[in-house]
Amino acid sequence: MFNRDRWDEIIEALSRNWFRTALTAFGVLWGIFILVVLLAAGKGLENGVKKGFGGIATNSMFMWTQTVSKSYKGLPKGRRFNYDLDDVAAIKENMPQLRFVSPRNQLGGFGGANNVVRGLNSGAFNVYGDYPEYIEQQPMNITSGRFINYGDIEGKRKIAVIGEGVRKALYDNGEEHIGTYVKINGVNFMVVGTYSMVSSNGNAEEDEKQIYVPFTAFSQAFNMGNRVGWMAVTAKDGYSITQLKSEVFDIVKNRHSIHPEDDRAIGNFDLYEEFQKVDGLFIALKIVAYFVGILVLLSGIIGISNIMLIVVKERTKEIGIRRALGASPWSIRGQILMESVFLTIISGMMGISLGAALIYILNKILDANGPVEMFANPSVDLGTVITALFILIFSGLLAGFIPAQNAIKVKPIDALRNE
């Protein structure tokens, strides 16, 4: 129950020597301020790194063929093999846990010869033969027109979706591009859309110098037949592609007579596994932030404990009189603990407020000056604030425990003799 007299006494005791109280409280304020700022900075770094994934389906892997390293069923080691569309169908049929299995083909690329021409302009660009679902695995902003659809796949339409980098290289500023044609390795494709990357870990400009065409038209135009260069495989929610990929590899190995223990025959990049490593890093950073912040906070708690010991010493006579008048040990202990918790919470909440103000100002600066690479929207959530509040309450009780124990050990007769 709220006891006004007790609270008046707490405020009077702490304000009696306000300068000493303020200096003591500053230790807690600084500790919780450091904790909040470190957590916010870690969150900003996490947001920046994850933003770099640009919404990409992180529960994915890319797989390609490599040289067979073991002989099997009379077939020699060292041979090469290729994926085909039947492999894609077999994986889809036998692995219902997978959301997407996207076959892909590619030609050209950075450092290669000019493979794309429009009028007098030309350039060397990556050209991909893809299915419509690839945009779900690598999200893009369609800035004009549209992306590939299944009508394009079934009709083997020679259409192309070009990146903004390609558009700037092949077209004049403001020139109409939808419905025009670009020549890829001597074959005309009609431009039906343009895209920009959501984000790509600092490689967005290079990733916008790419062209996407229907997989079937790519195969027909460039004599790929039934071959598949590589695949992008995404698991459904609730499944881990890291755990499923061995089953996918087994299907392919069985179809191409590859030794079951030949781990070098199939190359892969497990995006989910890499993403989990990044997540683990940020968990470690959060633990370090709490560790450092609590250590700084602990120095403030020690200061409060010391000041409460001095307060108890100064009020020895008062405590003795209260004990002589019948005050229970718990009443004396509760008074000291309440003073300690009150001082800790007030100073701690001031630290949280200052930290929140700094985070607000930092976000305003970031908004005004544009995005910063690998750092975005530093913040602390409500859970962090509640955690900090519990830390403050526990710290206040810890700081007041020894002084409170000393207070109840004071004998009334000895206290009344004290000068």
Automatic annotation (TrEMBL):
It comes from the Bacteria. Residues 291-411 form the ABC3 transporter permease C-terminal domain. The chain crosses the membrane at residues 21-41, 287-312, 341-362, 382-402. The keyword Transmembrane helix applies. Residues 21-248 form the MacB-like periplasmic core domain. InterPro entries: ABC3_permease_C (IPR003838), MacB_PCD (IPR025857), Macrolide_Exporter_MacB (IPR050250). This is Putative ABC transport system permease protein. Belongs to the ABC-4 integral membrane protein family. The lineage of its organism: Bacteria, Pseudomonadati, Bacteroidota, Flavobacteriia, Flavobacteriales. It is found in: Cell membrane. Its main location: membrane. GO terms for molecular function: transmembrane transporter activity. It comes from Leeuwenhoekiella aestuarii. Pfam families: FtsX, MacB_PCD. Keywords: Cell membrane, Membrane, Transmembrane, Transmembrane helix. It is a multi-pass membrane protein. GO terms for cellular component: plasma membrane.
